[in-house]
Amino acid sequence: MPELPEVETTRRGIEPALAGNRIADVSVRRARMSRRQPNPADIPGRLIGRKVLDVGRIGKFLIVDVEDGFSLVMHLGMSGRLLVANLEDPEDAHTNVVIRTEAHEEVRMIDPRTFGFIVVYTPDELADSSIAALGPDAFDALPRSPQLLARMEGRSVAIKTLLLDQRFLAGLGNIYADEILYRAKVDPLRQAGSLVASEISAIRKQIRPVLAAGLAHGGTSLGDLTYLLPDGRAGEYLQRLRVYGRVGEECRRCRSKIIKRVVGGRSTFSCPTCQR
Ligand SMILES: [Zn+2]
Hints:
The chain is of the alpha+beta class. Helices cover 26% and strands 21% of the residues. The model has no long low-confidence stretch (mean pLDDT 97).
């Protein structure tokens, strides 16, 4: 699933095509993609003819503000990606949403599994949406360690599971949570409430550098290549992963074999020696 580095890479890729341009047409080819819209028929009327003001992001959500207060929210789900293309470029399979600008460019959402979605909110609807329930963005608004400590106190949930909770921190997913906990030397199964200040500080210290490294490499494209940059290239952070997907391979610090366990229903990779 695209996480913060992949979504931010996507944001940077679509921004030149959208920002400052007027939306000429919107086409939702799979009705499921607009399932979050209270009345899906509202989507074209809220976008067409309006100029894009900002292309933003909170956590894993892209938020495109257009004139008259409407916000286009896009989520890539499990396997979605956005592609910037010219009008005449042939469409990839599973092109489920197409947003065309007056500059004759298109932002296309390609999503084979259709867990992604688009929705266009009024300001009131946005304030009532799941966006408003998101925790602080893990990259742009990372809380200080004492605040994290206070929010973990008494929590019996595994630290890995808490890092994936978008109401706690917005943007982390399975890959980067495992990489952060490995670098912080904390066992993903530890109860969040059992962590001491130095451990929380160690985790916090790794969050932005790990996300920044992912971002610097255009994110992580796994073998299935469902995630690609908006220009069609693959993200190259995969080769740099230290634990994710490396079960049975050697830890680069201590040479123990990386293990895989299921935590909160998610495959979780860690070093049994380094992470305590
Ligand atoms: Zn190790």
